[in-house]
Design goal:
By secondary structure, the protein is an all-alpha fold. It is built from nine helices and two strands. Helix content is 67%, strand content 2%. A hairpin with a 2-residue loop joins β1 and β2.
Length: 205
């Protein structure tokens, strides 16, 4: 489910390896259970994680605290996916494919948490999404400057359409999705609408 492994931190301090494994297990179980049943209890999450209920309660004082931690963790994975894919030196088409695939893996693997992240008002989550937005806009401006997108394209509108495509393909029934096929579909659709040479959109990398 996790695309890139990052150390979980509580209160700014990294956890011990055994505690970190337990936290991963609980968060991944919470994602699975809550995606299936958003009203699921802490007890159901503990059962799915294969740990004692007291283990979950010891780490999360309330159900809401657990969901908040899950949302922040998924957001960190989202940011890591974008950071790892976006480059100011690689060709924009390569970056676009790579970023789309990595973001799809996070959004599919952490569907409940990522959908929730879009609606919460946590300042740190808002900061992460603003940073991702800036990186995406920069990528689209490079794509236009290098001739991948037509010069008359409104870059903001193209980016909004791109976001909408990603959102649509990650809504429901995507657990076993073919990420490579979805990536090609999204990029093809985007470039057939905004690309300088629509024929390039059908070329797989």
């Amino acid at each position: 489910m996790t695309t890139r492994h990052e150390r979980i931190r509580i209160g700014g301090k990294p956890l011990r390896a055994d505690a970190e494994r337990t936290m991963h297990t609980i968060l991944e179980a919470a994602e699975r259970v809550l995606l299936s049943d958003p009203t699921a209890t802490m007890e159901q999450i503990a059962e799915a994680a294969g740990v004692a209920r007291t283990t979950v309660h010891r780490r999360f004082a309330t159900r809401e605290a657990l969901i908040d931690a899950l949302t922040r963790w998924a957001t960190e994975q989202f940011a890591a996916a974008v950071d790892g894919a976006v480059s100011d030196t690689a060709p924009p088409l390569v970056v676009l494919y790579r970023a789309t695939a990595d973001v799809l893996r996070v959004k599919i693997g952490w569907g409940f948490a990522m959908n929730r992240a879009a609606s919460v008002t946590d300042p740190e989550i808002a900061r992460v999404h603003a940073d991702v937005l800036e990186k995406c806009d920069r990528l689209f401006r490079r794509a236009q400057a290098t001739g991948l997108l037509r010069p008359d394209v409104d870059v903001e509108w193209a980016r909004r359409c791109y976001y909408a495509l990603i959102h649509e393909v990650t809504q429901g029934g995507t657990a076993d999705a073919d990420v490579d096929a979805l990536t090609t579909l999204i990029v093809d659709t985007l470039l057939r609408g905004f690309g300088a040479d629509p024929g390039r959109a059908s070329t797989r990398l």
